[in-house]
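Predict the 3D structure for this chain.
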Amino acid sequence: MPETQVTKAPPSLLYMVKQVELVVRSHLDDLVRPSGITALQYTALTVLQRHDGLSAAQLARDSFVTAQSMADLVRSLETRGLVRRERNPNNRRELLILLTEEGRALLTQHEAPVRELEERMVRDLTAHQTEQFRQALTTAWHALS
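Done. Predicted structure below.
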C-alpha cells in the first residue's frame, strides 16, 4: 500500500509576525537590560524621541501598550530621570511626557547595538528586499489600524 504524503500548510502570517516580534523583543531586552530598562520602556523612549511631548494616552497607543501599563511605565521612567511630565499649555488638565537629557543619552548609548540587531534581522535580504519588507509591514499595519 503506497504511503500518502501529507503536505503541511505554511504557518500563518500572523504566527510568523508574532515569532519575529517575540525574538526581537527578547534580543532588545538583552540589549537594554544593563541600563536597567525593558524593551517596552525602550520603545516608549524611542517614540518620545520621534514625537516628544505626548499625552500618556497617545504614548500608550504609539508604544502598543494599555493606558494602565503606560502609567506604570512612565512612573518608572520618571523615577529614573529619563522622562518628565509637564502641563499641556493648551489643556491644563493634560500632562505631556517629555524626554530628558538622561533619556536622550540612554537612547544614544543603545543606538549602535539596536541598529546592529536590525541589520542582523535583514542581513540575508538585499537593500531592495529590505525596503519592500518595510513597505509591506507598513501596509499591513495600516490595514489593521
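The mean pLDDT is 93.
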